[in-house]
Amino acid sequence: MKNIAIMCSGGDVSGMNPALKHFVEYAKKNNLIPYFVNKGYEGLIDNDIYEATYKDVAGIITRGGTKIGSSRSKRFLDYKYREIAKNNLDALNIDSIVVLGGDGSFRGLHQFYKDFGVRFSGIPSTIDNDIHGTDYCLGVDTALNIIKTSIDAIRDTASSFRRAFVVETMGRDCGYLAMITALTSGAEMCLIPEIEYNLDDYEAKFKEDVKNGRDYFLAIVAEGIKEDSSEISKWFEEKIGMESRVSVLGHIQRGGNPSIYDRLMAYKFVNQAVDALLNGRDESIVCYTQKGFEYKSIDEVTKPYKLDTSLLNTL
Ligand code: F6P
Description:
By secondary structure, the chain is α/β, with parallel strands linked by helices. The protein contains eleven helices and eleven strands. A seven-stranded mixed sheet has the order 3-2-1-4-5-10-11, sandwiched between helices. A four-stranded parallel sheet has the order 7-8-6-9, sandwiched between helices. Helix 1 (16-29) packs across helix 10 and helix 6 (140-161) packs across helix 7 (176-185). The radius of gyration is 22 Å and the shape is elongated.
């Protein structure tokens, strides 16, 4: 192993650029030659692969997204394209890849390993924080901080205008972002796909709150719940009698200056991922739990993710 590549796959996260920067530094420190693959699997297929230099990573630490781009590639599912990708890597003498992505991306490289023996380490990276076996995925801290800043601002206008705000967070079918946000922003309502809810259960309490002087509400709802956020807003108007607005935070949650925690975690994840390959591990996913860093198997991390909702009982 001499030449080593890194790529990003799936939804980008803030923290990928610090990881790329550190990858170049750490690879060189270990006498490896670092390569970048642009646009994820698409770049592997299209031979968009090049040796990375310090110049490529200068100044990127403060930027969200990923300098080398990402993609959700359908072509890589096809053996014919994986073979092209393998030939491209062979031409550059690259036999090991670090991938920043989610479980779908890891499955792709697992298949690639089975086909051609290309070794890989995976770094869980998704703002959804929904990968089995790891408590933390790169990028989630920045996303939560962006959401926090947005919601603190929404609270200002909600309280000034006596309104109920329904704020929709991302997460696909996982309620992690909504749950942590609701807890840490002091929201009155948190709706996530993992927990059955009935709006009627909130009615009496909220009416009582209004009677006792409450003049605004914050409801945090995950994008994956069964209802549209506008229906929750309508419920506030019709049942609680308070003017309401919806704010869908959308893709601002995916960008922004990486938090300090995500920067540091990016470095640590990269060290673990490169070390795994240097130490002869063919396929490992770097996970982070209360025990610290651990390598887990592809089978482990592709199990269905189950959100621990017990934290919500503190609401
Ligand atoms: O998986 C990350 C994520 O941001 C989800 O939270 C969201 O549902 C999805 O990606 C949005 O995907 P796209 O960027 O393709 O619209």
